[in-house]
Each structure stands twice: as C-alpha cells, then as structure tokens.
C-alpha cells in the first residue's frame, strides 16, 4: 500500500515571509537603498575624480610603505595593466562596492564576535547560524536582495554583506577567546572592569586574528561583488557577465585577470596591516 507523504510547503512559507517583510518594511528598505546609493556615488565619484596615474601612484606608495618594494612594483605593473586594458572604471566601481560592503560587514560583525566571545550562551546560538551561512551557496544570497532593494548595486552590497560577515565574526570570537587566561587573571587582579579588559587587553592581543578575519571578509566581498553582477551590480563582474552573454571569452579573461590583481593587492595590504613581514 502506497502512502503519500504531503510535501512541506517550505518555499511558499519563505515567499510569504519575504512578501510580508518587503511590504511592512518598504519605507526602511527605501531609506537604506537611498543612503547606500548616495554612499556608492560619493565614493565612486571621489575615486573617479583622481586621474588614473595619480591613484596608481597613491596605491603604489601605500604598498611600498606597508609591505615593501616587491608589492609596490607588482601593484604598479598590475594597475598599469588594468588601465591599459580599458578596465579602470569597472575596477573603481568594484573597489567602491568592496569597500562599502566590507565596512558595513565589519561594523556588524565585530560587536557580534565580541558578544560571542564573552557570552557562552550567545556563542552556542550564533555558531550554527554561521555554519548555515557559510554552507549556503553564494548565488542564493542574491534571491532575497532583489525583493528588498531591486536590481542594482545596492542589492549587490546587501548580498555581499551577508555573505562576507561570518569570517569576521568567527575570527573576532576566536581571537578574544585565545587570549591567555593568565593575562586575564592579571587584569582582574589589578581591578579592571570588563570593558577595560576588553579594550586594553583582549582586543589588542587579538588584533592579528581580527585582521585575519577582515582579510577573509574582503576576499569574500570581492568574490561576491563579482557574482552580484547577475542582479545588476556594476564593476568587473558586469564585464565578465557581459562577456559570457556575448560569447567573448577574451574579454571575460581580461576582466578576470583584473579581479585577480585586485584580490592580490587587497590581500597583501591587509596582511601587512596585521603585522606581516615587510618584503624588500
């Protein structure tokens, strides 16, 4: 005898929930969208205002100061190649989205990571959520972004923030929890309050681990910004997506190389900020 097991209408529930949220919070999402778009335009216009050679010179000097001659020479060659390929404006658009998404993700992730580090109860709650977020395919994050913010760069930033937050939360929690207990006990012996221990002992000692989390957040933000071209985000991702649609593999590889150059520069710079060894 066959038994028909009723199908759980999970998709219908999710759609109903999204419809409810987009209807009830439409004013909030519109305000966030306008503010975010204004920030995107401001930063993008500021970077575009600088001549290409001037911005390249500033980035090369930053690379030299933070990491050394090798990264400066590599950065000069890479950025000059992007300029030569005619991908400078898309690169600036991608950098704008990465910077804004990373800043928002860090602002949200650091307090959550600190709370998870000092509260075992919150730690047990948030860790399964982070596991779920990091296991979810990247393309799925694009789906809820469209009902809330429509097609465009704001939706790309929304999806990027959600996708790139987990490493910053994990590394913040890990860094604070790995501070040696004898140092915590010494701070207690001197009568430090919880906030004094956090600000003067735990956060400074966990800074290299925190920077590792920020590095991972930047890398994930860059990868997601490229994918977000599917929902209208501007930048190098849109160049790759356009090349796929028009069957132009050469142009797609050019944009992909520009993304790799950006990733290498951002990765090396953040590693240098975290106290990495300076290369000659």
TrEMBL record:
Keywords: Cell membrane, Membrane, Transmembrane, Transmembrane helix, Transport. It is a multi-pass membrane protein. The chain crosses the membrane at residues 46-64, 71-88, 94-118, 139-163, 214-236. It is found in: Cell membrane. InterPro entries: MetI-like (IPR000515), MetI-like_sf (IPR035906). It comes from the Bacteria. Residues 91-270 form the ABC transmembrane type-1 domain. The keyword Nucleus does not apply. Pfam families: BPD_transp_1. The keyword NAD does not apply. Belongs to the binding-protein-dependent transport system permease family. This is ABC transporter permease.
